[in-house]
Amino acid sequence: MKKKDIDPKVYDLYDEYAHTLMNRRTFFNVASTLAVVGGTGLAMAEAMMPSYAEAQTISFTDERIKARYVEYDSPGGTSGKMKGYLVKPAGEGPFPAIVVIHENRGLNPYIEDVARRAAVEGFLALAPDGLAPIGGYPGNDDDGKVMQRSLDPDKLFTDLLNSARYLKGHEWSSGKLGATGFCYGGGVVNNLAVVMGTDLNAAAPFYGMAPATEDVTRIEAPLMIHYAEEDPRINASREAYRSALEKQGKDFAMYTYEETRHGFHNNSTPRYDEAQANVAWERTMTFFKKHLS
To answer: In terms of CATH architecture, what is 54-292?
Structure first.
């Protein structure tokens, strides 16, 4: 089923399902009761589920990169230890580095693929798994989001902050660090910009929650901020964020992508908008190459 065939009410329900503790069975049951155009709500809901195998764009065996899982210390985090997916470009380096922060369900295959995409562009990429201290991404998003909800949010953020610092100091890193992330991860990236100051050299959050406006003064990194057009939950704080950045004279660009929904960069579900996702990614890579070279 194609994106255009899915009723907007099912998209809205999926957004609720993705960002709450609603389980898959409830999602399907509620969808089946919706009055929709062009099919059944249940069929549309089933079409919304991620298809990670089909969404892979860069193979983990691609000769342009080398990927492996790494473990590292994380003082003050959930357990004191963390794990992530480290992908380096072929060659000796050092390389400018990008930390890639996952959504609200742990390190799923889509985010691993994003890390490989960044490595193909010449960046040392680390995609940390915030669920690693409690067993890691469980192989499905339903259980992943429940696991992530169970974590202390401050300790989870500390684990992701420590991941960024680990990457910045890695032997293959040039010391120049960027951060990108999606949904929950976009919000984390906004807050990394607040907390890390000059230790972060560039940040590109995708449809992430804005930081508190009073914290904007602490941001030093240039920002490239991506929003979906139809994303009322996240966009509610967009203009206040823009105003605070302008008031503080920060270096930023803010883009809203027409006719897109939350998650438009994620190519594993029909929310994906190929044309707009490609524009956003190309802008992001150009931005990082400018600020991390």
So the answer is: 3-Layer(aba) Sandwich (3.40)
Rounded Cα distance, 94 and 82, in Å: 23
Identify residue 268 by its one-letter amino acid code.
Answer: S
pLDDT in tens, 206-248: 999 999 999 999 999 999 999 999 999 999 999 999 999 999 9
* Helix, strand, coil share (%) of the chain residues, nearest 5: 45, 20, 35
Contact 43, 29 (CB under 8 A): no
Residues 6+ apart with CB under 8 A from 71: 81, 82, 83
With beta carbons less than 8 A apart as the criterion, state whether 34 and 48 touch: no
DSSP code of 6? S
Rounded to 5°, angle at Cα 272 from 148 and 278? 110
Single pTM value for the model: 0.95
Q: Which amino acid is residue 38, in one-letter code?
A: G
Quick one: pLDDT at residue 1? 66
